[in-house]
Amino acid sequence: MSRYSTMIAIALGIGLVTLAAGLATGSIAFLWNPEAIAIVVGGSLIAAAAGSTPRHLAETIKLLPALISRQPNAMSIAQWWIATNTSWRREGISALQQFIGTAPSPSAATILQFCADGFDPDEIARLTEQLLTTNAERYQRAIVFFRRIAGYAPTMGIVGTVIGLASALASGGDSATLLLQRIGFAFSATLWGLVTANFLWLPIAQRFESMLQEQRTIDRLHVEAARLVASGSTPLLTRYRLATLLPDTQQQQLLDHDATISSSAVVGSVTHQ
């Protein structure tokens, strides 16, 4: 999945609503209601944040750049581990220290450090699983957080509408045109609540969910590769074992010996769009 696909889809969704509003009314001016937007967006964020701890909230914020940043893919991770194992078999433990600096992620660097420190293979597998479980929990909390915001947004839209209607009724002595205008602006709050919930917060939550599924595949690769490297398995065995964890379309590609790339090439290809 392209790293920009979610942002493009969000923009298209909001653009579609704007276009429909313009075609229906001949104007989109009524959509611009700063007060309603502030109540819907600000209120939803505050309500969701109230149910999170400061630490979890900070972790979720730190994950936001991952929505558009380059992410390692399973195929490149497998190739990196094979190249690492090959160099280790040829050059010894010093090769692992060199590959730590080329790790595609902080987690991979930490796992390889476990191997370089000479821990028992079973202990390395246990430590790796604990490390990756902690990382997965961060994604799960982010998913829950944004789904919570999506749940609050329509309600905050209703709050904005009620405030707008109360304001309109309180100024009943004004002209009918002004009164109708205020009522229209009031209902735009409900619209913003629905739009942000369905075209902003839920897509972000779904994007994190897709990233979590991809991360789980990579996590399984890390656990198995760390165990194989620590136990001194041959690069060929490592290749076959890691291939079984890849999607069917990528298994043969990894097993193809002609597709093996040098360690320097692996470092340059561990990320994708």
Topology:
Elements (H helix, E strand, L loop, with lengths): L4 H21 L8 H17 L3 H10 L7 E2 L1 H18 L1 H8 L5 H11 L4 H50 L5 H55 L4 H9 L4 H8 L7 H6 L2 E2 L1
Antiparallel strand pairs: 1-2
Question: What amount of the residues lies in strands?
Answer: under 5%
Secondary-structure-derived class: mainly alpha
The amount of helix comes to: over 70%
Inertia-based shape: elongated
Q: Provide the low-confidence segments as ranges.
A: 257-273
Work out the helix count.
11
Cross-sheet strand order for the largest sheet = 1-2
- Rg over alpha carbons: 26 Å
SSE sequence, one letter per element: HHHEHHHHHHHHE
Sheet bearing the most strands, described? 2 strands, antiparallel
Oligomeric state of the chains?
A: single chain
**Termini separation:** 8 Å
Overview of the structural elements:
This protein is mainly alpha-helical. It has a domain at 71-134 and 215-272. The protein is 78% helix and 1% strand. The chain is built from eleven helices and two strands. It is elongated, with a radius of gyration of 26 Å. The termini are close together. Mean pLDDT is 85; it is low at 257-273.
Looking at this protein, list some descriptive labels.
273 residues; mainly alpha; elongated
